[in-house]
Amino acid sequence: MPVKNEKQRIFYPVFFLVLLFLFFLSGILDAVRQALLLCGRSIIPSLFPFLVLSRLLTSAGPPPILPGGRLFSRLFGLPAEAFTALLIGALCGFPLGARVTADLYAASTLTKSEAEDLSSFCNMIGPAFAVGAVGVSLFGSAGIGWLLYGIQLFSALVYGLLTARRTKETIVALPREKEKAEEEGVFTSLPAILSDSAVSVLGICGTVLFFSAVCALPRALLPEPAYALLAALLEVGNGASAAAALPLPPGLPIAMLALSFGGLSVFMQTAGILRSVGLSAAPAFRGKCIQALFSLILLLFLLPIVLR
User: Fold this and answer.
1) Residues near 232 by Cβ (< 8 Å), separated by ≥ 6?
2) How many angstroms separate the CA atoms of 224 and 230, rounded?
3) What is the pTM for the complete model shown?
4) Whose CA, among 185, 191, 260, 272, lies 20 to 30 Å from 152?
5) How far apart are CA 245 and CA 34, in angstroms?
6) Three-class SS of residue 186?
């Protein structure tokens, strides 16, 4: 009975959404077409190769300790191998930080709580999207893109430092996973990695398409600043685009919010990756909320300098 009631509760909002989609069909179709262009021109080319490479990095067991890994371990209280997730997340963008974290947990390199702590600050917008898509394409300035990227990266690192664990845990090994990685090797598992990466990138694009359609609904009903703020909370690409259409003082903080929070679209992608290996997505969501607030405050502090 509780399951039936739960289904009934969600039926009416979804049915109402179907009616809204039909009523605003023209705007929905345009939004989905634009989202398809975004997927084809930006998301798939920038994510797919890195999804494959990140899976290759972790497919044969724990990655080697990178330069800076031991310093990372002392500062953040996590295994030195976890530095790989932070580095890939910072350089390649979401959801690769979460993907590498999940792979490290599946390979028994991290405990459950370590992986959940790492997921709270290693998953972020990459410089290619922040500088190329947002800074140059939307705001006409690479400097603005680097500013937004640098602030959200700084906020993530500060959050990770402030929430760093001070005690180490014993990792419970998963022998079957390790034996499987050793038997298969890296390149014998390449076809499966390519297939998994293709499915992952299609799932990411599907989430972007759906949230782009949802974002199209309030566009004709809300004033531009309110719409931009709502879009920033739902989907990062639409939020940044709507923010760039505003004058710079209100537009830049909304773009900062979109990039540092990532929107519910990014969170759903992250949650799907983490839950696929049994990790909770709550620490990641909490971390992004706090980081978004900190990024916004820092940008507002720097805004008078930027606008000179």
Assistant:
1) 239, 240, 242, 243, 254, 255, 257, 258, 261, 263
2) 10
3) 0.80
4) 272
5) 16
6) coil
Q: Which tokens is 143 given?
A: 């400097």
Q: How many CB atoms lie within 10 A of CB 60?
A: 16
Q: How far apart are CA 104 and CA 109, in angstroms?
A: 5
Which tens digit of pLDDT belongs to each residue from 100-124?
A: 899 889 888 889 999 999 999 998 8
Dist CA 300 CA 292 (whole Å): 12
pLDDT in tens, 271-292: 988 998 899 999 999 999 999 9
Residue 44: partners with Cβ closer than 8 Å, 6 or more residues away: 201, 205
C-alpha–C-alpha distance, residues 195 and 214, integer Å: 29
Do the Cβ atoms of 113 and 78 come closer than 8 Å? no
Q: How far apart are CA 86 and CA 59, in angstroms?
A: 17
Give the separation between CA 186 and CA 169, rounded to whole angstroms: 28
Tokens found for residue 172:
């419970």
Q: Which of 56, 60, 58 is nearest to 179 (CA)?
A: 60
Given a contact cutoff of 8 angstroms between Cβ atoms, the answer to whether 288 and 262 are in contact is yes
Q: Give the contacts of 288 (CB within 8 A, at least 6 positions apart).
A: 120, 123, 260, 261, 262, 267
Of the candidates 38, 151, 56, 40, which has an alpha carbon nearest to the alpha carbon of residue 99?
Answer: 56
In 10 A of CB 293, how many CB atoms?
14
Tokens linked to 93? 């963008």
